[in-house]
Amino acid sequence: MQSADERFTGLLVIIPTRNRSALARAAALSFLAHLDPRVTVMISDNSTISEESADLRTWCAEQGDERLHYVRPPCPLSMPEHWQWALRTGLEMCSASHVGFSRDRSLFKAEELPTLFRMAERHPTKVISYLEEHVQDYKIPTTLHQAAWTGSVLEIQSLNLLRASAQITWYFYDCLPRMLNCIVPRAIINIIEARFGNVFSSIAPDVCFAYRCLETTKSIFYYDKALNISYAMDRSNGTSQVRGLKTGDHVDFLNNLGGKKMNFAAPVPNFQTVMNAIVHEYCFVRNESGASKFPEININNYLSFIASEIPNLEDAHLRTEMEALLEHQAISYSVRPLNNFFIWRESCVLTSFDSVEAALKFGMKNWCKRSSRVSYEEKNIAVSLVLGGQPDSLVYLRVALIRGRLKLANWMKLFNRSVERHLLWRLRS
């Protein structure tokens, strides 16, 4: 029997926002569209523009939905400080057993909430991450990027995901529990806070949380299906890094680092790319934890991946600067960046639309065709199949055969487990 603090009782969704009232409203409505009383949405307004705050506060009051709450810190904060303040405020206000964060520029596919809730009810002590999609809307044509998916629920050992992060041979980022793509039991939040003194820190609070989570848990669950869509990429700090552009939002972010140097814990802090920001957070948590479970970064693969990012920088001066830095670091580390070493996810389905609104309307109701193959994560990391994604009682045997791990002596054991998964799939359906 589960104790009271091990049961799923509800989800608190925190939407941190800064000068994006229209986007925050849409994000909140995407969760509230599902009329489940166990969903609580809290918008935490870190805006520096008074008109944006007034508009958002008024809108929240006008909704008349007791599940929606508006809060505002006493003064504008840096991103990690704001996330920490919002989390503490939300947990004190709400008694929900689980918490998740949402970008203000993301929409959640509310019809998937019942599935996510059933997983949390069956496995209330597990962090559950999920896949994401996005709309590329900073250039014409507007394009919806939808990833291949299986619907499987996988258990991934934290140590294996840390090893993948250190080796950088496949795109582990999608299944990392980055708080923006997962739901987290309150008990895990408390463990992380007791271990590190706070839940969010460093520069990128989402990725910092992911590695603190992996440091304090044995495994996570990953649901191989996209549950949200991000858009408004011209307002994205991460996309600004990908493109090498100093947009207004990115400049504001850099100006609020509190004296910290960008990527200060990375092997080469001066690389201005997204992977370097991810590796920085990995190294930051490794250094602060002193845990031996964090392997050393594979420098050759690290530099090779950064070499693949540099051509995407649209600022020609920055691109030239990064190329020179890469050449110098390759000599310094006595390594040679590799080509075609990385195993990318199966190609996304790209659909063009005349407008962002049309892309979102389609994406919120449609996924690309369900894949009958083993998921991208299963191909690249050892996992346990918690729930098969297909109505096939032999799905576990299929996976075992593909991996070459099926032995005759274990046939009946595997068959019984596959039948169990079929029954679980029927319950979920």
Index terms:
single chain; 429 residues; alpha/beta; twelve-stranded mixed sheet; 16 helices; 12 strands
Write the layout of secondary structure elements.
Blueprint: E1 11-17, H1 21-32, E2 39-45, H2 50-63, E3 68-71, H3 79-93, E4 98-101, E5 106-108, H4 113-122, E6 128-136, E7 142-146, E8 153-157, H5 158-167, E9 182-185, H6 186-196, H7 205-216, E10 219-230, H8 237-243, H9 248-254, H10 274-289, H11 299-309, H12 316-332, E11 349-353, H13 356-363, H14 376-380, E12 383-387, H15 395-403, H16 411-428
Parallel strand pairs: 1-2, 1-4, 2-3, 6-10
Antiparallel strand pairs: 4-9, 5-10, 6-7, 6-9, 7-11, 8-10, 8-12
What is the gyration radius calculated from CA atoms?
22 Å
Provide the residue-averaged pLDDT. 89
Largest sheet: 12 strands, mixed
User: What is the tally of helical segments?
Assistant: 16
In helices, the fraction of residues equals 40-55%
Class computed from helices, strands and strand pairing:
alpha/beta
Q: Can you tell me the residue ranges where pLDDT is under 50 for at least 5 consecutive residues?
A: 390-414, 425-429
General form: globular
Topology order in helix (H) and strand (E) letters: EHEHEHEEHEEEHEHHEHHHHHEHHEHH
Which percent range describes the beta-strand content?
15-25%
Number of strands: 12
Determine the N-to-C terminus distance: 25 Å
In terms of quaternary structure, the protein is single chain
